[in-house]
Amino acid sequence: MNLPTDYFSLFGLPRRYALDEQALSESYRALLSRVHPDNAVLADATAKRRAVEDAAYVNDAYRVLKDAVRRGDYLLQCYGEAPLGSNEALPVEFLSEQLDAREAADEAWQAGDRDRLESLLDSLIAAQRQQQKALAALLVDGETPSTKTLASARQHVLSLQFLTRFADDLDEKINA
User: Fold this and answer.
1) Long-range contacts for 126-134 (Cβ within 8 Å, ≥24 apart)?
2) Which residues, at least 6 apart from 128, have a Cβ–Cβ distance to it below 8 Å?
């Protein structure tokens, strides 16, 4: 089966940051059922290998689009941007706020203040949603973003990546 190289086209979705997660899941299940290696049990070795490769590709594409950070990074790459790097700078003000929040989380953790940790996590989740909303406004279907828009979107994806890691760390502490 010749699968589209664009992940959005693969699942029949518009190329934009805002995503219909139900449509993605439904399309994923339907597509995976068509390319699953179990369908090639009686085929020759080449067809079996191709089925495994196709299923892996569909799974990878699904994981990318399902994840808010990876989807943003993928969209940036679709518009010719380099993949996110680990040494990219975020605005000093943002980093300062996050440092303060991490210190507050450490203090709450040391004090055993679960309520404070959960409150901080709620704040992080709200900040993640804000970044996602900004990305949805910047990366819309049918429009090729300007260089300035792509630079702004990159900062939002980087911020979202930072917030997501922090939220995951905090969630781990809460549930430890």
Assistant:
1) 127/163, 128/68, 128/160, 128/163, 128/164, 128/167, 131/156, 131/157, 131/159, 131/160, 131/163, 132/17, 132/68, 132/160
2) 68, 160, 163, 164, 167
Q: Which of 5-14, 56-65, 80-89, 132-141 shows the lowest mean pLDDT across its residues?
A: 80-89
Distance separating alpha carbons of residues 101 and 166, to the nearest angstrom:
9
- Higher-pLDDT residue of 134 and 46 is 134
Give the pLDDT score at 86.
Answer: 67
Tokens describing residue 10: 């693969």
Instruction: Report the first-to-last Cα separation within the chain, whole angstroms.
Output: 45
pLDDT computed for residue 47 by the predictor: 77
High-pLDDT (> 70) share of the chain, %: 98
Nearest to 76 by CA among 11, 131, 142, 155: 155
* SS3 category, 129: helix
Q: What is the pLDDT of residue 145?
A: 93
Q: According to the model, what pLDDT value does residue 2 have?
A: 74
Location of structure tokens 């009686």: 42
| pTM score, whole prediction | 0.90
The tokens describing 127, both together, are 């900040």
